[in-house]
Amino acid sequence: MIRKAEFNDLSSVAKIYDDIIHYEEKNTKYTAFQANVYPTIATAEKAFNENSLFVYEMSGEICACIIINQIQPDEYKK
Question: What is the C-alpha to C-alpha distance for residues 18 and 63, in angstroms, rounded to an integer?
């Protein structure tokens, strides 16, 4: 189920970010993610506070996340 993120989801979102970064360090890089730069838990917190952070939850586990808004992060402009 896709739903708006709750405050308690932020640590799961940050873990997803870290997991993707570590995966891409060992494999092909598809995103603009950079360790300790973008995205971070601060990215998730900002999106949460702006009501633009959503998560996909399956069987009680956060499996994916997305920020939906009209802002393109600088990391994607390069």
Answer: 13
State pTM to two decimals: 0.89
* Encoded tokens for 55: 């998560």
**Tokens (6 digits) for 7:** 């405050």
| Residue pLDDT, tens place only, 38-74 | 999 999 999 999 999 999 999 999 999 999 999 888 8
The number of CA neighbours under 13 Å toward the Cβ of 5 is: 27
